[in-house]
Write a structure and sequence with these properties.
CATH architecture of the domain at 332-430: 2-Layer Sandwich
Number of strands: 20
CATH superfamily of the domain at 332-430: ANL, C-terminal domain
Bound molecules: 5'-O-[hydroxy(phenylacetyl)phosphoryl]adenosine
Structural class: alpha/beta
Largest sheet: 9 strands, mixed
CATH class of the domain at 332-430: Alpha Beta
Shape: globular
Radius of gyration: 22 Å
Length: about 425
């Protein structure tokens, strides 16, 4: 890869130089973190300080930071700068427990925008592009996070936010949108809106899309790419590490480059905490390397992924993460069997009869767990022969049973009948009472 094609030469830094940069930044981060009430106390108790970092591997001596630690010291226990240096707050929705608050200094916001600009430049966003940002603005990081990165590249940014589907499509035509940022499940739903409006998605001037914020299968990506007629690049991030832009797929689409000058990644066995080898799946643990307001050390993301072995053909040296397979806490148990929603999605998306949405419903029948997969079908299939529907239902249940070891009940429904989300899709409805 020619250096002049990169947004930032750091993207192709040789591994030794990258490691030196990371080690310096790690030492700085530990010193910075020690200023926060949480880490200040923890480091004092354990006798840890920046001098304990001679090489990257010394990070092992630091304990993992859990989401619960953030909750326990809500809102400012991890703040490492005086409050008057904070210029921005982002905040989780708190759907899985107490919310977490994430503060940013002006420098944090600036570096984050730069990292996002790097991501978008990598997939081809340039001055002259029209960038329609369909993620919600506000406390969620998806909207503002991509906004400033796209502006930095000089793109014409449309801050649409989520929802208002017909208007989204109208704007694409009026303003000649060439790139969109969108939650994958919403990109699927918007295809239905195009259909209602009689707009052929492939006729729009779009060149590419980027999206993440929720797990989605390779099958879903393939469908999105075919229906919209453009590449759809995966974007990963989490509020605790600024937000989107932590890792991003290059045009090769074989894993997401984790920006290792900004984040130090480890993949661990969630049970033992030991690091696993490249290629093996485990939980992603991240250490921020440039965050001033709220540095985090060995933060357990709960996200399941692996490091993709070997170098990327694109020439960037930052290691790649495989598509996120879900969160350790997304897993649900049915009749003693552990199941991840993405296992179900993978099977559904491999069946051409399946439409654009599905939901998993868990309830009880007597004392036994019951797993129902409610699936929208394509219109031509849904309104076809009853016999064919019955045999499809059987085949779907069989294939799912092979994948998840439990035979689910299948409900085949008309396209557009499962309520759509504009934000992250809610894939599992658990109605079981303990
Ligand atoms: O979802 C940040 C983001 C915004 C990422 C826009 C990408 C695009 P949170 O709301 O804090 O932040 O949720 C973070 O979402 O730990 C993952 O479980 C999940 N997640 C994010 N990106 C992906 C992805 C934003 N590409 C949590 N694939 C993370 C799978 C993802 N899961």
């Amino acid at each position: 890869m020619a250096l002049e094609d990169l947004y930032d030469p750091t993207e192709a830094l040789n591994p030794e130089a990258l490691e030196r940069l990371q080690t310096d930044r790690l030492r700085w981060t530990v010193a910075q973190a020690a200023r926060s009430p949480h880490y200040g106390k923890l480091f004092a108790e354990r006798g840890l300080d920046p001098e304990s970092i001679r090489e990257l591997d010394d990070l092992r001596h630091f304990p993992l930071t859990e989401k619960q630690d953030l909750r326990d010291s809500y809102p400012f226990g991890f703040l490492a700068v005086p409050k008057d240096e904070v210029v921005r707050l982002h905040h989780s929705s708190g759907t899985t427990g107490t919310a977490t608050a994430v503060c940013h200094t002006a420098g944090d916001v600036e570096r984050w925008a730069d990292l996002v600009a790097r991501c978008l430049h990598m997939v081809g966003l340039r001055r002259g592009d029209v960038f329609q940002n369909m993620m919600s603005y506000g406390l969620f990081t998806g909207g503002l996070g991509l906004h400033y990165g796209a502006e930095k590249l000089g793109a014409f940014v449309i801050p649409m936010g989520a929802g208002n589907s017909r208007r989204q499509i109208e704007f694409m035509g009026i303003f000649g949108t060439t790139a969109m940022h969108i939650i994958p499940s919403y990109a699927m739903a918007l295809l239905g809106t195009c259909e209602e409006m009689g707009v052929e998605p492939r006729s729009l001037p779009l060149r590419f899309a980027v999206g993440g914020a929720e797990p989605y299968s390779e099958g879903t990506r393939t469908r999105l790419q075919e229906a919209w007629g453009i590449p759809f690049h995966n974007c990963y991030g989490l509020s605790e590490m600024c937000g989107p832009g932590v890792a991003f797929e290059c045009p090769v689409q074989q894993g997401l480059h984790l920006w290792e000058d900004a984040y130090l990644g480890e993949v661990i066995d969630p049970e033992t905490g030991d690091r696993v080898v490249d290629g093996e799946e485990g939980e992603l643990v991240l250490t921020s390397l440039t965050r001033e307001a709220m540095p985090l050390i060995r933060y357990r993301t709960r996200d399941l992924t692996s490091f993709t072995p070997g170098p990327c053909p694109c020439g960037r040296t930052h290691r790649r993460l495989s598509r996120i397979q879900g969160r350790t806490d997304d897993m649900f148990i049915v009749r003693g069997v552990n199941i991840f929603p993405l296992q179900i999605e993978r099977v559904l998306m491999s069946m051409p009869q399946v439409g654009r949405n599905y939901v998993i419903v868990l309830d009880r029948e007597g004392y036994a767990d019951r797993l129902t997969v409610r699936v929208e079908l394509n219109a031509d299939v849904f309104f076809g022969e009853l016999e064919q529907l019955q045999s499809l239902r059987e085949r779907m249940a069989d294939r799912l049973r092979r994948e998840i070891m439990v035979r689910p009940r299948i409900e085949l429904v008309e396209p557009g009948t499962i309520p759509r989300q504009e934000g992250k899709a809610v894939r599992v409805i658990d109605e079981r009472k303990d």
